[in-house]
Amino acid sequence: MDQNTENRLEDAGTDSGIRIRDDSIVDERTGDIVGRIGLEHGILTFEVAPEARGRGVATAAVREFSRSALTRRDRLEMRIPWENTIAQRVALAAGYTREAVRRGTPELLVYSRLSDDPEKPTPRLLPDLPGPELSDGVIALRPLNVTDVDFYTRLHSDPDVIATSVPPEPKSAGEIHRRCARAEAQWLAGNRVDLVITDLASGAPAGEICLYYQEPQLSQAMIGYSTLKAYRGKGLTTRAAKLLALWVFAETDIVRLTAGVLPTNIGSQRVLEKAGFTREAYQRLRLPGPDGTRLDDLFYVLFAGDLLMQATGEGE
């Protein structure tokens, strides 16, 4: 299923060309059954034939089925695996809201829609990138995915990266796989953006940069980053921080972009300052350290106006 096609059909409000008959999704033009949809133990499930995907069929069917079902009940629920981001996109486009993680084997994401919810797509806090990646001609930032497990393992096996992680502990193989496999689902939920920094000169992944949107009520998010040793000192992380910040301020409602760094990490402080961040506070014993210790944290902040001043050369 083409995700962009789904979004275009929803945004344009075009005629879907499908109808629901019993538990079948029917193509009105041909009369062919192109999928199934229904309630199983009170949970909405759907399936679309491969030849019918990419036409907005799933979104239209879920929307139409939900409209009818919610005249007879107060709530509908979908349970979707973490890795099935196409179904998650369908749920959002059909007005469902992610509300919980259902623990168990497997873990499932719970999406719900109530009878009095507005009949329109659920707004996303963190939209997709405008293309497959962000680039300034020297680096590119692309979404982390499950194919990055080997790279992510190598990055988070670096002692310097471990020492500056929160908490400063090695990541298990399971944690690394989950981080990569579930990155898109976290992005769709508005929780986090995980990006791989690619060095365009070599075409190789050089590091990661992440956006954590933990305080949407304050329009405040935090960035974090790590770089392989071979790519440090080349300005790639500064470029990544600027690229991410430009996208954040242009495409989201985030007003304050923050970052934290250990007082001993002079290199990271220089990265932030070159990217336009300003040191705002010294937070004593804020971070968990090794062996039960606590570490101080330097707090930096960036606003859209700071980037503008830097671009125009003001304040130098």
SSE layout and pairing:
Elements (H helix, E strand, L loop, with lengths): L2 H10 L5 E4 L2 E4 L5 E8 L2 E6 L8 H13 L5 E7 L3 H9 L3 E6 L5 E7 L19 E2 L3 E5 L5 H7 L3 H5 L9 H9 L1 H7 L2 E8 L4 E12 L4 E8 L8 H16 L4 E6 L4 H9 L3 E11 L5 E9 L1 H9 L4
Kindly report how far apart the N and C termini lie: 50 Å
Classify the oligomer.
single chain
How can the largest sheet be summarized?
8 strands, mixed
Strand order across the biggest sheet?
A: 8-9-10-11-12-13-15-14
Number of helices: 10
Write down how many β-strands occur, each being a DSSP E stretch of 2 or more residues: 15
Class inferred from helices and paired strands: alpha+beta
Broad CATH class of the largest domain: Alpha Beta
Helix content class:
25-40%
Number of domains: 2
- Please compute the radius of gyration using only Cα atoms: 22 Å
pLDDT < 50 stretches: 1-14
The CATH homologous superfamily of the largest domain corresponds to Gcn5-related N-acetyltransferase (GNAT)
Q: What form results from the Cα inertia axes?
A: elongated
CATH topology of the largest domain: Aminopeptidase
| Strand portion | 25-35%
Question: What would you say about this model in short?
Answer:
It is built from 10 helices and 15 strands. With 316 residues, it is of the alpha+beta class. It has an 8-stranded mixed beta sheet with strand order 8-9-10-11-12-13-15-14, sandwiched between helices. Strands 1-2-3-4 form a 4-stranded antiparallel beta sheet, covered by helices on one side. A 3-stranded antiparallel beta sheet has the order 5-7-6, covered by helices on one side.
